[in-house]
Amino acid sequence: MSRSTSLAKSHKVSHVRNKGRFRFRFGIRLKLLALSIFLFAIPWLGYQYVWELESYLRIGQEQTMVGTARAVATALHERPTLFDTQSAYLTDVKPGTDLYAHKIHDPIRLDGKLDDWLDYQHLSLEYGPAHLLDYLNDSDDYQRSSLHFRHMVGQFGEYLYAMFEVTDENVLLRAKNSLRVDRNDYLQIAMTGPDGSFKRYVVAPQEAGWVNAYLLSESVDSMRPVSLETQIQGRWLNTANGYNIELRFPLAMMSSKIAFAITDVDDPQTRQIRYRIGTANPNKSDALGTVLVPSPEIENIIKGLKYSNARVWVIDKHKRVLARSGGIHKSVGLSSSAYSSNGDQQASWWQSIEQEWLLPLYYQILTKPPADFIDDLQDAYALQGQDIDQALTGTSASLWRLSPDNKAVILSAAHPIFIDERVMGAVVVEQTTNGIRTLRNLALEKLFHVILAVMGLGTLALFLFASRISFRIRKLRNQTEAAIDQHGKIIGTIPSATAGDEIGDLANTFNIVLGKLGQYNAYLQNMSARLSHELRTPVAIVKSSLENLQLSQQTDEDAQYIERAQLGIKRLSTILNNMSEATRLEQAVQSNEREEFTVNALLSGYVEGYRMTYASHKFVYTNEAGDVLLLGSSDLFGQMLDKIIANALEFSPEHSLIAIKLRQHASKHLLTIENDGPPLPNDMEGKLFDSMVSVRPEHATSQPHLGLGLFIAKAIAQFHGGDIQIENRTLETGEHLGVRVSLLF
Question: What residues form the membrane-spanning segments (predicted)?
Fold first, then answer.
């Protein structure tokens, strides 16, 4: 084979090997990365999908609300009788003058204590210096502590209720024998009747308690009572700061214009009027304000919408509430049946796990729609908002807003009401997004179930995948270790892998590498025998030629060169003999039959022979194990002892002790050979049994040493199932004592 062909094949093998290594390094990582990305992509996509779904649901809810407002407005179009002609058609509304009759949920007990008005006190209006009537002459010295009052009107059934909480530092009632009603503190009422007539009334009791009103004469300049009006009834109650008045009269008495005024008289002698404060001037029919009473006809039309989980408002063009129905606190989402199965049925194991473990965990992140949020428009009599402003211009609109406590998102939709092609009001429909949030939570619950399942299955799949890879890698490692013994010899091969992945490629590559290494090791093992065989003939020729030259006539200089050549040939012959000996020993170990022999008897005989042969050293043998039988070869065991003793004799000084001891060590036997030789290098203790390793200094001896003695000893020890080691002997102080060879078998 040419050199270029060999290099090409080597390059090809290297390329294939690098390619397999690249696939092994990056292929598994890419698979794991792809699986990880897949696992994380599923929950992220699902979460994004749920949020996208919620946005579409909100758009759908918005369209539904606008459609509901349009449908209600359609029922109110072109029906002018539903709107109060005196209040709804006003060009302008003046707060304080134009009143709103709030819807009262329960009838008022006329006791003057104002307890029944506590739920509505935030809707009352304050009347003070800004409401002084303009025809009084002594208003310049007005003091708020002298007279002011809080007032509101409400409607329940067919009655209009009114309350006055008057602050007056000096309450002066009508004298018992007085026929006049204007020389004391009094309440004056002015209204227009259903027929449009202007009527005035006064409440001026002689004492606190039950009161009725007096009808005044038609002359606006006169305060003369004409008759008792029993339909206006109520109670006057004196308080520490003034007095309270509660009144009730039928809505049928009036149309929509009304005015109330409180007159203050403080001086009991002169009985002159000091202040008069009112909602409007009760003595001028054209100065009266209006009172807007929620329309029962409109309320009847929208009454059925209270079951729609929404709140419906009908307002006039001044944004005042004409009617309302329903509430937004009821739209809290789906009922509990959406979360669980029929309550009469026993919950399954999955439902128990879901309710007790999963849902509490999910709702650490999710939030349930609250039903206890603050509704700032619950008792509103006027509405504000961009959607309403746009609806009153003739275009439907919607608006999203947060509740004051930021707990709920409220959607309102407004649609105009047309009468004679003019916008006379609007329908406003409100609803929270709690239903959508509930649906979102349900979707996220299912999504979290899927995420847990996918993550669990994915984790299990990754675990099994990693376990399979780990198993195959461990198997490949074990096969590789089994193919090479502890001395580095190739004793087996790796089975060819059928799998086409990276690990299969790696196993096949290892198989190819081990095959090539086996061939190379076989070549190295046979090289010594081949060299020994091939070199013996030229060595013999050179040796015989030198001997012939030595017999011929020669000068002193030639004799010196011939002697040096003979020494070199002798060393070369020794080297060849040693190499042949190692080869023959390995072959003998492989082919030798095992037989049982007594170790202690063999040791005793060999030690006795060493004493006679090597008189320059002292040999001591100690047997603490008794008779020990070993299955193997006594000849080979003796050769091992010869190699170890020869090594000890070479390194230990003359007349030193070489101690040989056999003793029991757990379930095995331990043979130690100690001498007083120099210490071994620290990095060479584990390498002295390898082939071609020696610690002898160069040119220290005349005989060549290839480092095969201990290598042969180790091979024989392994043949007998033993483990041989060499180490330094030291004291605890670190003082060196010598070298110990240990054989455990």
Answer: 447-467
